[in-house]
Amino acid sequence: MNSKDSKLDSLIANLPKELTPENDLWEKIDKRLDAPVRNMTKRASHNLWRSAAVACLLLITAFIGQKVFNPLFPQPEIDSALINTLAEIKTQHQIQIAQLQQTSELVNWQSSPYSSPVETGIDQLREAAKQIYESLKRNPTDKQLWQLWLWTQHREIELLRQGQKLPVSQNSQGATI
Amino acid sequence: MKPTRLLNYLTIPLILVANMAIAAQSIDKQLPVDENLKLNIKVLRGEVKVSSWDKDEISVKGTLDELSEGFILDKQGSLVTLEDKMPRHFNGNNKSGSDLTIMVPKNLTLDAEGLSSSYTVSSLSGVIGIDSVSGNVDASDIENEIFIHTVSGNIKTSKLTGKIKLDTISGSIKDKNSDGEISYKLVSGELTANTSAKNVSIEQISGDGKVQLKKVNELKVKTISGDITLAMSSLKSRANLDSVSGDIELKLPKNLAANFNINGGPGGKIRNNLTDDEPKKEKYSPTSYLKFQTGSADADIKISTISGSIKLSD
Hints:
The complex is a heterodimer of chains A (about 180) and B (about 325). By secondary structure, chain A is an all-alpha fold. Chain A folds into 2 domains: about 25-70; about 80-165, no CATH class. Chain A contains 6 helices and 1 strand, in the order ααααααβ. The longest helix of chain A has about 35 residues, at about 35-70. The model of chain A is unreliable at about 170-175 (pLDDT under 50). Chain B has a domain at about 110-310. Chain B has 1 helix and 26 strands. Chain B is elongated, with a radius of gyration of 26 Å. The chains are: A mainly alpha (about 180), B mainly beta (about 325). Chain B: This is DUF4097 domain-containing protein. Chain B: InterPro entries: Toastrack_DUF4097. Chain B: Keywords: Signal. Chain B: It holds the Pfam family DUF4097.
């Protein structure tokens, strides 16, 4: 027992007072800590682009899939019969206007000193009719919009007819009834 | 001085005096008429006043147009034609026109026509039509069926009752205390009205309107770019208001029971100061809308615009 104890004591006495690493690692750690950040960023940024590309690819795939199988932005069901009717009415109206304008050329009511507000009104109605027509093409079941559109046509014809009744000045001085 | 030259000098004053005599030509005529009088008046320039009296005859007093080619007062059965005949071509201003006061029986069918002549018409009953180009029309206290049309002349009316149509291109319309069924049509003119009419129709293009309504049965409004402000105390049946780019403001009592269906269109705006209901956007479209109901709704209010603004307030 005593021999064992003494052996242990001698072994302990022979141990070094502190443990030192085989190689000095601090230098490496220090270098690592002071390593330029850009190297890290470059790698992270590279990863970010990769993630973004994957995300985009996924989104595009999802979007195409949705469009094909279950549209995300469903197109309104356009009633082709109503669209055709819309186009037909527009054509008929244009024919009617052309006929009225042929008469207008004979009457030459635009030379009347009172024609200006009538002409302005007709121009404004035509411009408004265009806007309503475009809205109707997108939403051909809007009854109220239909009525407004038909009204602009009706009013345009009404104003053309009123214009034709205006007193026309055949010379710069007199009025003719 | 040569005799011909002397003659010319003497002739010129004579022509001037003759013209002055024509300008001052006065008229004072009476004509007994039948019960179902239909009167056509054609006075192109000047001022014409038409009013009723309790006699079965027509009276015409005043002066004729400076360029008058004669006065016509012709009776064919119940049809009477009254005309200050003018040359086919003429110029000059309205001050040189006729100045006539015409008294007629209260019940009649009247068809009055003018160019720059202004008409003042009052206290009549029947089918009354006045059509002037640039002249103003002032009509009051008329009942039954009234149609007034001008191009640039202003229309001013009060106490019209029955079926009324007021129509102008660039003139203004000022109507007060009308009742019955009324239609206002304007292009660029301004509308100001205070009416008790039950059925109201307003059509304007670029002119603005301000209309005070009372107990309305049916209201129809169409405007292109003109703004309109309407106020009403009650609505029985329906109100349809449409605009392209014009603004619509509708003032209603808070307790009005109605179904509201407001379409703000792709470029319009909706402001609701009447209730707490908020306008909504359609899911995949720029169109805004507002639907709500107040009370046990009997009436329908539909308002739509493409790019104007719609405002509801009390």
